[in-house]
Amino acid sequence: MTTNIMLGGVGGQGLILMTRIICQAALKDGYDVKSNDVVGLSQRGGMVWGNVRIGEKIYSPNIPPGDADILVSMEPIEALRWSSILKKDGKIILNIKRFYPTLVQQEKYEYPEEDIENLKSTYQVTEINAFEEAKNIGKKQVSNVILLGILAKHIDIKMDTWKDTIKDNVPYKSIEMNLEAFDYGYNYQGK
Fold this sequence. Notes:
Keywords: Oxidoreductase, Pyruvate. It holds the Pfam family POR. The protein is an alpha/beta fold and 191 residues long. It has a single domain, classed as Pyruvate-ferredoxin oxidoreductase, PFOR, domain III (Pyruvate-ferredoxin Oxidoreductase, domain 3, 3-Layer(aba) Sandwich), CATH 3.40.920. The chain contains eight helices and six strands, in the order E-H-E-E-E-H-E-H-H-E-H-H-H-H. Strands 2-3-1-4-5-6 form a six-stranded mixed sheet, with helices on both faces.
């Protein structure tokens, strides 16, 4: 069985770290993994995305349209942008914290609130303001690890493996805060 995960966000939200932790945890638990990230626009706060495919034998990191099991959206517009890659019964983990694109800030376009809301009628959506929850834990920088905790509930990887992989990938001084963020996400009941 293969699990296909699409990640979408805005530069600076920690998508590369999240992808690395998912891949390393899956490898440690004995799965084959392929991934790719597109991050060239990240330096300007532009969109970034990545694919992770986990299974017994994976030949390509690319997820065909309509084949993703889970979409982790670090910004609501990214959920809308990447929703077509999901299966009909796909899951969206949606960080509802908005990072308004330049054209919305310049009032040339409206933020697509209604289209984002309509995703709930097609997909299983778990909403969270990971940014605000992360601030409550200690620092907004762990919002991606909260999303990772929510994602972990849907992937057959041992809890100890997740936590060991997080410890291996975050600065020593922030290990406890990141583990707390992961646990918060894992135990989050959602909206």
